[in-house]
Amino acid sequence: MENKIKDNKVARTIFEYVGILFGTFLTALAANMFMIPNKLAPGGFSGLATVLYYVTGLPVGTVTFVFSVATQLISLKVLGKSVGLKSFVCTLAYGVLVDVMAGVIPPFSDDVLLASIFAGVLYGVGMGVLYRMGGSGGGTDLLARMLHKVTKRLTLSTWIMCIDFCVVLFAGIAFKNISIMLYSIIVLFLYTQVMDFVIAGNNYAKAANIVSDKSPEICERIRTDLNKSATIFHAYGAYSGQSKDVVYCIVYRNQIAKLKSIIYEIDPNAFVTLADTQEVLGAGFKNFNGE
């Protein structure tokens, strides 16, 4: 069934957008049932919008949408490319669903610890589904990519962590409640772990070997779309007797779906193997000193 969908471009596109909308629905459900009623702000523009909701009364969905679209527009200049229709659909759907569901979905629990746990799990599942279908939050991840490109100081993952921490800290200050800040950290930790598991199991990163006649094009897209480098090996097919190029790259778990989409778009006949990695050290990943 899944292979038939992949072979049919129209069906695959419909399947991906349905998945994106379903994932976005789960994140909006988590926000309305657990996070917003309990003032939980686990990073991102949605977390910032939650704080502003209690300070100004502005709708969470609308504020999240405005911040995300503004970031996407700025990224066109800084990153020099469009963030894509899927990112905009995610942003629009989340903004609409959060505001529409606000008056319909009642808070599930006023036990903040219980709400933090369920919020992290449900939000993580939603984000995992969303990323697996090639979607993107289109918010602070874009902001992190812009900061990474401009400063060239910290890794992309470090910038994302810094932005999320600033939002959590802002929530603690705005609400004058350190407990809220700590509960938000619990949500942030849980949802990132669950999201990574939904995307690619419990492995830190994947090593990809890609045999293709269009290796240079694939390498360029890996560099521009995933902000990762790649190595091309010249190989010789023992059975076919033909010379082939093999692209080798390491990507994070939440980039696997995008990598497969890039490969399929450029060369549907490519041969790809994905392997688990125990640890990755070097540029773009963890430094040798463990940082």
Helix content: 55-70%
Biggest sheet, strands in spatial order? 2-3-1-4
* Tally of separate helices: 11
Number of domains: 2
Would you mind describing this structure in some detail?
This protein is α+β, with helices and mostly antiparallel strands and 291 residues long. It has 2 domains: 2-200, no CATH class; 205-276, Alpha-Beta Plaits (2-Layer Sandwich), CATH 3.30.70. Helices cover 63% and strands 10% of the residues. It has helices at residues 2-7, 9-35, 44-56, 60-78, 85-102, 112-132, 140-151, 156-175, 178-200, 215-226, 256-266, and strands spanning 205-212, 231-236, 243-252, 271-276. Strands 2-3-1-4 form a 4-stranded antiparallel beta sheet, covered by helices on one side. Helix 2 packs antiparallel against helix 6 (112-132) and helix 6 (112-132) packs parallel to helix 9. It is elongated and about 65 Å long. The model has no long low-confidence stretch (mean pLDDT 84). The chain crosses the membrane at residues 14-36, 51-76, 88-106, 112-133, 154-174, 180-199.
